[in-house]
Specification:
The complex is a heterodimer of chains A (about 110) and B (about 120). By secondary structure, chain A is mainly β. Chain A has no helices and 11 strands. Chain A is globular and about 40 Å long. Helices cover about 0% and strands about 50% of the residues of chain B. Chain B has no helices and 12 strands. In chain B, strands 2, 5, 6, 10, 11 and 12 form a 6-stranded mixed β-sheet that branches. At the A-B interface, strand 4, strand 5, strand 9 and strand 10 of A face strand 5 and strand 6 of B.
């Protein structure tokens, strides 16, 4: 039972570079989410997806791009990284069933933008 | 606007003592409330939820939470703390009016330390 996996676990990049964070889930969950975790802010939603080819903005989407061509994958791309995007990024999924309102989180990607 | 507040950044308690981690919420309509726990270098794990029904909700690892509508609170409790309960705890909310499952608003987190 692989669950939900994120890669890489750690990433260091420079300002202005493009970087993609990967997220893969094996449950065929309909919903997938990207949250960022910052001290003093808790978790904030960047983007989410209700199904393949359906994505929508969360609270802090600026500077990020997502895609979902397959149900199991939900990559997050920073088009031109900035220092303010240094954070821990969590991918999460949910079955979409109202009787099971539980998010399953990956282990996170710690991103440092220098 | 929906939000939750966790008024304490840190809670320290001795092993064996009861613990409480506080959460208050602000949401239009009926709230769906959650507690998640994060151990070091790990993702968040679901602890419990309140959707409707009994105001006292029981969850994983012996935790429970009490929903209080008049005080707009959803405090996390455990009768007897363990050292292994030391972790970062997040309260979260979404409203019931057509918002996406899993689209949650999280508090800033409360670091719980249980000392032996």
């Amino acid at each position: 039972d692989a669950g939900i996996t994120q890669s890489p676990r750690y990433k260091i990049t420079e300002t202005g570079r493009q970087v993609t964070l990967m997220c893969h889930q094996t449950w065929s969950h309909s919903y997938m989410f990207w949250y960022r975790q910052d001290l003093g802010h808790g978790l904030r939603l960047i983007y989410y997806s209700a199904a393949a080819d359906i994505t929508d903005k969360g609270e802090v989407p600026d500077g990020y791009v997502v895609s979902r061509s397959k149900t199991e994958n939900f990559p997050l791309t920073l088009e031109s990284a900035t220092r303010s995007q240094t954070s821990v990024y969590f991918c999460a999924s949910n079955s979409g069933q109202s009787t099971n309102e539980k998010l399953f989180f990956g282990s996170g990607t710690q991103l440092s933008v220098l | 606007a929906q939000s939750v507040a966790q008024p304490e950044d840190q809670v320290n308690v001795a092993e064996g003592n009861p613990l409480t981690v506080k959460c208050t919420y602000s949401v239009s309509g009926n709230p769906y409330l959650f507690w998640y726990v994060q151990y070091p270098n790990r993702g968040l794990q679901f602890l419990l939820k309140y959707i409707t029904g009994d105001n006292l909700v029981k969850g994983s690892y012996g935790f429970e939470a009490e929903f209080n509508k008049s005080q707009t609170s959803f405090h996390l409790k455990k009768p007897s703390a363990l050292v292994s309960d030391s972790a970062l705890y997040f309260c979260a909310v979404r409203h019931d009016r057509g918002s996406t499952l899993g689209r949650l608003y999280f508090g800033r987190g409360t670091q719980l330390t249980v000392w032996p």
